[in-house]
């Protein structure tokens, strides 16, 4: 299914010796240096690399949208057909942008203007580049929406972005980009912010449209699964330089550079992966027991000061975790997994029973709450936003000890040093501020903070999702080591099936506020019983171009189903009955 | 929508009730005696007591307030102690002048403020930006009577371009409206600048540029409507600040509006007029806020009135 390999034809887009610097002319520092690649008609070239590798800057340089004056195109050429883009004045570049080179971005939620209708944003592009009547532009816009398979395209023209789901918005972005049949489409992490099942649909769509229109696609991604699935060729970048380039199939069979090899090795895969959790058996006592947990958020509005309909985010969830065990809660956005976590740590009001170390937290008094906070710690997703930027790392980790009045001052200080050592941070780290750490180090800091009170349970809400794969692998390793050392139970919340497959002992799949299936890791991944679970696992892009998905026919979208009892289909494997 | 309006109007009525209680109580506690003002210095104790009884000012607070409220509910704002005419008539006669001044003032502050803010945001970090922000700071911090007198001196007295006081022609309106608007313009310039800088960083602005749109289109069609949202909400609140400005500006320029009426009434402890002007101002603020909230959904479709 890779398109024409295009050998022999002249490249549509040719980047050669591109260098982009930051820091002005006085102290220039290259963020992209000496980068060269060609993109041919009908081809998909993947620009892969971890954060900071310069892949997004490269795309902005091609568009002529480098943020000024922070970044500067220092040298190199970018040719579109016969046109040298770097020499063009802004006015001429504007004619090319959106017409011959179009771009789609990572965040479908924020990439469309919230105050303009979808139709307006689409026709605007068309009218900007084509000398057509407003009516003709509208017809073209509807056609573009049809092409990206938006149902009832004509009606949707009047919709505003907030009235659409993330997947639909990304389709609109694609429609906008492809309405004028550009020669080159630059897609910067186009599916990273989407749920896996939606990602699968959007990737399929991109591939189909490319086949129909013959567009050359420059796909920027950090996800090796997406590379394997979409790319004809791949360019791996690191620190602004090209590390490796090759045909996708050959690349996945054998990497020529150690970096590319490491990068691929670090990618968590379903059914393998070196860091995979061994099968373990757990005895009681249970560290955490959750029974019939429900969370309702009050709705807004109503007559005068009354309340509206409450939002029922979690509709009766039950599970338990033994000491030293990892239970993963998986599901797509909006399924209630994060709300469950918030309820457990006392950030959301709930009903139902939460039994922690034999103590029911339901009717907890002030002292009980404080004790519960000692036994239950949380590590959040965003290591940038969840640490107070005005506190030093040492203070951040010591704060829980202060709050609970544990030990003397010097004992606390010793404990902090010990914790830093435990999570692999250097001894000078306590004096530094969060912004002086990298993403992975910050997440270590968050883990040290969670460990400070020797909790029985740690709730990790998407704790490795924002990290690069190589960093992710190391943080997961750390979590495992700490678990075997202290016997902590993890409730691991994630949307990433591959990560879940690596770290979990047991997995629970959530949908629409309920658990649909719960089983041991091996049972769930080798023998998923619920159609939704099957779909979730199949949708994950596999970092192996030879193993093409046979998932053309995806199970139709599951309607929100009512409370269905869980039935045990094999020992320890419970599935909700399907209607 | 109808339900929303109903709810807001009920809220407005409650707010006005609260304002009337507080103002009435404050005036009751005031050490100045309105009866003394009416009777004059030479009046006998007997005359003073007679007038007091006549006006019902010898009654306890609750009786006085109850009586006022009953009249108010019937649309009667009472009679002025000194001017021997209905408060409602006095206010109605002067309201158009004040509304005209306020409208012109708001227009001034919006046009000047948004233009300055937009310009500063686009030229962010340059000397232009700094100069604009310094002048906006001057606008914010200079007291209105100083700004008013300064404008009056420069354009009225020295240059002789505009009349120094009075009412009637468009030329009369310029200086008072400018004085009123400059304070707010400084605020808006700063708000628009920061809001605009924030919006210009958004992903959808990058999208707009990636579509190949002209700089001005990106700025006015994609950025400005988003940046202006917090400003619209501000205008409602602003009317309150405006009302206090109106009192000063009308006095400085001899503008025959309710601000001047209030100023005279306060000096003479003419309680019915003070009450009337306060309630009308409160009503203006409440309605201004309502109007701002009603406009918001037209700018931002995400806002739903409930």
UniProtKB/TrEMBL annotation, chain A:
Cell compartment(s), UniProt: Cell inner membrane
Keyword Iron appears in the UniProt entry: no
Residue span(s) of domain ABC transporter: 13-264, 288-537
Pfam families named among the record's database cross-references: ABC_tran (PF00005), oligo_HPY (PF08352)
GO molecular function, one term: ATP binding
InterPro entries, A to Z: AAA+_ATPase, ABC_transp_ATP-bind, ABC_transporter-like_ATP-bd, ABC_transporter-like_CS, Oligopep_ABC_C, P-loop_NTPase
Keyword Metal-binding: no
Xref: CDD domains: ABC_NikE_OppD_transporters
Protein topology in the membrane: Peripheral membrane protein
UniProt xrefs under SUPFAM superfamilies: P-loop containing nucleoside triphosphate hydrolases
Keywords, comma-separated and alphabetical: ATP-binding, Nucleotide-binding, Transport
Stated family: Belongs to the ABC transporter superfamily.
PANTHER family according to UniProt: D,D-DIPEPTIDE TRANSPORT ATP-BINDING PROTEIN DDPF-RELATED, TRANSPORT ATP-BINDING PROTEIN
Name of the molecule in the record: ABC transporter ATP-binding protein
Automatic annotation (TrEMBL), chain B:
Organism: Mesorhizobium liriopis
Domain of life according to the entry: Bacteria
Bilayer-spanning residue ranges: 12-30, 99-122, 134-155, 167-189, 227-253, 273-296
Pfam families, sorted: BPD_transp_1, BPD_transp_1_N
Location(s), subcellular: Cell membrane
Keywords on record: Cell membrane, Membrane, Transmembrane, Transmembrane helix, Transport
Protein name, entry field: ABC transporter permease
InterPro entries with a match to the protein in the record: BPD_transp_1_N, MetI-like, MetI-like_sf
Stated family: Belongs to the binding-protein-dependent transport system permease family.
Domain ABC transmembrane type-1: 95-296
Membrane topology note: Multi-pass membrane protein
């Amino acid at each position: 299914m890779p398109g024409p390999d295009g050998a022999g034809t002249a490249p549509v887009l040719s980047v050669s010796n591109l260098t982009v610097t930051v820091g002005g002319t006085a102290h220039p520092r290259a963020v992209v240096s000496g980068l060269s690649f060609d993109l041919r008609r009908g081809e998909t070239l993947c620009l892969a690399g971890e954060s900071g590798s310069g892949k997004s800057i490269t795309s902005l340089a091609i568009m002529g949208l480098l943020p000024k004056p922070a970044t500067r195109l220092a040298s190199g050429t970018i040719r579109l057909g016969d046109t040298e883009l770097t020499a063009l004045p802004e006015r001429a570049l504007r004619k090319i942008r959106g017409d011959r080179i179009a771009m789609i971005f990572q965040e479908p939620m924020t990439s469309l203007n919230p105050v303009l209708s979808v139709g307006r944003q689409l026709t605007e592009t068309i009218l900007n580049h084509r000398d057509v009547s407003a009516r003709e532009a509208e017809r073209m816009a509807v056609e573009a929406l049809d092409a990206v398979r938006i149902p009832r395209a004509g009606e949707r023209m009047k919709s505003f972005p907030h009235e659409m789901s993330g997947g639909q918005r990304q389709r609109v972005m694609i429609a906008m980009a492809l309405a004028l049949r550009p020669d080159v489409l630059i897609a910067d992490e186009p599916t990273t912010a989407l749920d896996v099942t939606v990602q699968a649909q959007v990737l399929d769509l991109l591939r189909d449209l490319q086949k129909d229109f013959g567009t050359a696609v420059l796909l920027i991604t950090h996800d090796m699964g997406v590379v394997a699935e979409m790319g004809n060729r791949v360019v791996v970048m690191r620190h602004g330089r090209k590390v490796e380039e090759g045909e996708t199939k050959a690349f996945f069979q054998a990497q020529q550079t150690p970096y590319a090899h490491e990068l691929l090795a670090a990618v968590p895969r379903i059914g393998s992966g070196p860091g995979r959790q061994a099968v373990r058996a757990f005895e009681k006592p249970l560290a955490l027991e959750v029974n019939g947990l429900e969370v309702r958020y009050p709705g807004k509005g109503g007559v005068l000061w009354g309340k509206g309909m409450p939002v029922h985010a979690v509709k009766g969830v039950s599970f338990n975790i033994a000491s030293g065990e990892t239970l993963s809660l998986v599901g797509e956005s909006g399924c209630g997994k994060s709300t469950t976590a918030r309820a457990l740590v006392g950030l959301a009001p709930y009903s139902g029973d939460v039994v922690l170390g034999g103590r029911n937290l339901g009717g907890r008094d002030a002292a009980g709450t404080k004790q519960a906070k000692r036994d239950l710690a949380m590590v959040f997703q965003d290591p940038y936003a969840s640490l107070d930027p005005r506190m030093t790392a040492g203070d951040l980790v010591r704060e829980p000890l202060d709050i609970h009045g544990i030990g003397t001052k010097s004992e606390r200080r010793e404990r902090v040093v010990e914790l830093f050592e435990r999570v692999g941070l250097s001894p000078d780290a306590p004096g530094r501020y969060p912004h002086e750490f990298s993403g992975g180090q910050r997440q270590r800091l968050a883990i040290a903070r969670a460990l400070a009170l020797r909790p029985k349970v740690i709730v990790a809400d998407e704790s490795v999702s924002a990290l690069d794969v190589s960093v992710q692998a190391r943080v997961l390793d750390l979590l495992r080591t700490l678990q075997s050392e202290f016997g902590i139970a993890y409730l691991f919340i994630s949307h990433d099936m591959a990560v879940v497959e690596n770290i979990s002992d047991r997995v629970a799949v959530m949908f629409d506020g309920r658990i649909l299936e719960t089983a041991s890791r091996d049972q769930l991944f080798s023998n998923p019983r619920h159609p939704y679970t099957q779909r979730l696992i199949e949708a994950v892009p596999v970092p192996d171009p030879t193993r093409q998905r046979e998932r053309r026919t995806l199970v139709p979208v599951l309607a929100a189903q009512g409370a269905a009892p869980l039935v045990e289909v094999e020992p320890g494997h419970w599935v909700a009955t399907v209607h | 929508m109808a339900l929303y309006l109903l709810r807001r109007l009920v809220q407005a009525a409650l707010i006005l009730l609260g304002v009337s209680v507080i103002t009435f109580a404050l005036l009751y506690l005031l050490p100045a005696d309105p009866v003394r003002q009416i009777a004059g210095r030479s009046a006998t104790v007997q005359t003073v007591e007679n007038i007091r009884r006549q006006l019902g000012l010898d009654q306890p607070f609750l009786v006085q307030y109850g009586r006022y409220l009953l009249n108010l509910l019937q649309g009667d704002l009472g009679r002025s102690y000194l001017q021997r005419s209905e408060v409602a008539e006095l206010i109605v006669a002067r309201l158009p002048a004040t509304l005209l001044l306020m409208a012109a003032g708001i227009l001034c502050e919006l046009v000047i403020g948004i233009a300055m803010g937009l310009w500063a945001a686009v030229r962010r970090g340059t000397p232009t930006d700094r100069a604009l922000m310094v002048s906006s700071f001057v606008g914010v911090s200079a007291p209105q009577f100083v700004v008013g007198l300064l404008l009056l001196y420069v354009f009225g007295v020295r240059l002789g371009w505009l009349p120094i006081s009075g009412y009637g022609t468009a030329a009369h309106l310029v200086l008072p409206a400018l004085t009123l608007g400059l304070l707010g313009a400084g605020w808006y310039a700063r708000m628009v600048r920061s809001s605009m800088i924030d919006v210009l960083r958004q992903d959808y602005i990058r999208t707009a540029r990636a579509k190949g749109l002209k700089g001005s289109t990106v700025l006015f069609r994609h950025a400005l409507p988003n940046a202006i949202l917090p400003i619209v909400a501000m205008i409602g609140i602003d009317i309150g600040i405006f009302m206090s400005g109106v009192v000063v500006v009308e006095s400085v320029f001899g503008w025959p509006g309710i601000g001047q009426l209030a100023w005279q009434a306060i000096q003479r402890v003419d309680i019915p007029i003070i009450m009337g002007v306060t309630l009308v101002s409160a009503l203006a603020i409440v309605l201004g806020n309502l109007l701002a909230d009603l406009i918001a959904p037209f700018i931002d479709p995400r806002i739903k009135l409930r």
